[in-house]
Amino acid sequence: MDIRRNTAADRPDDIRTHDIRTHDIRTDATRPDGTPPGEKQGAEPGERVGEAVVRALGAAGSAISQLSSGLRTALLALLLLLWLAVTAVAGLAGVGLLMAPLPLRALHTLARRERGRLARWGPEVVAPRPPPTGLRTALVDPTTRRELRWLVRHATLGLPLGLLGVLLPVFAVRDSTFPLYWKLLPDGATATSVAIGSAHSWPDALAVALLGVGWTAIIVGLAPGMARAQARPGRLLLAAGPDADLSLRIAELTATRAAALDAHATELRRIERSLHDGAQNRLVSVTVLVGAARRMVARDPAGADELLERAQSAAEQALAELRTVARGILPPVLADRGLAGALSGLAADCAVPCRIDVDVPGRCAASVETTAYFVIAEALTNIAKHSGAGQAVVTVRGDGRRLLLSVEDDGRGGAEEAGGSGLSGIRRRVAAHDGSLTLTSPPGGPTVLSADLPCGA
Asked: For 240-270, how does the pLDDT look when each residue is reduced to its tens digit (9 = 90+)?
């Protein structure tokens, strides 16, 4: 009995090749230090420093944007604080009692605006129960007292921090570029942004440029902390306290969840109707025509050829309807080209001349982008059908946390949700993501549809 060892040399070529490839995969799968192939074992020191610089500059830029947005609400807070002070003084004469409800409503409106601003730059600030606007009840209401304390802090602390957030970049740019234009200045002109010193030579100009570098270092080092200090009073005083009744928020979330489920069921029914009434009927026609052609092919080839041609036409129509349904579920262009590319396609197909302005630094969650796409698509459809507009403008802005949409047209205005224009469906889509929708459409126009969506994960 001849038993021979089946060595690698005795095996077929394809088996030997398989053994070699298996060996290669096994040896390359991991390195001695445990890192996968194709991945750097350690970044170079220069690369790590560069990444740290980029992160620091990005954080400083975001902080400057946050400080400048807080400056606007801080200016309004200062004006409102002066208004309340005048009302309090007038109250000593009895006149302020009649004026009090109006600044109180302005206080609640400004606090609500600040909550929205803080939500765009960080976690959502959960609002408490709506405070009263009556003078006697407002004086004892804890929410109103907390909003008054925030008003004082934001007007006294948030305002200077916001001013610094706006002025420091101006100082940095002005002083850093001073050597480029210092010879054009008149004699005796102030050289620095802080109105100190004058430049008479190139060393003086370069010293001013070094001051600009110092401003940049201050921005990178202090701006994030300044932004946190500006936002801290709002996050502490405008949020619902631990003893607050959150039943309204719970009821709102329950309603939006129910609306999301209802919208989902409505979408499924729409898809089912589209498939049943469209593509399914076309395919049934194809089946009938092909069967009739098979029976006629022997006795009437010309008639069979005509039936096959009709069957092919019906199949092409069914394919087109299936593609339309598929695009209605999730447009492929949205996944391939992103929100900007998909909206460019919508603008090209719109019957009204449309301009698209998209500034979104990264991709949002797929469900959020899909919602934004369909909101804008429905809005443009309404403009083409009902507005009589000559042009439309679509603006999309994103900061990684919120996605802000705006669709504006110069039509006749007067749009209403109850008018059967699909606006209620748009609101349900936005509410399903815990977003907000605002419609402004006075008679005579213009009509502005705005939506605020969280970007998701």
From this structure: 765 555 566 666 667 666 666 666 666 677 7
Q: In three state form, how does the secondary structure of 31-84 look?
A: CCCCCCCCCCCCCCHHHHHHHHHHHHHHHHHHHHHHHHHHHHHHHHHHHHHHHH
Query: By C-alpha distance, which of 119, 118, 83 is closest to 102?
Result: 83
Q: Which of 135-149, 258-272, 298-312 is predicted with the least confidence, judged by mean pLDDT?
A: 258-272
Q: Is the pTM value of this prediction over 0.70?
A: no
Instruction: Report in angstroms the alpha-carbon separations of 349 from 336, 353, 384, 402.
Output: 18, 9, 11, 27
Q: What is the pLDDT of residues 14-52, one digit of tens each?
A: 433 334 333 333 333 344 444 444 444 445 666 777 788
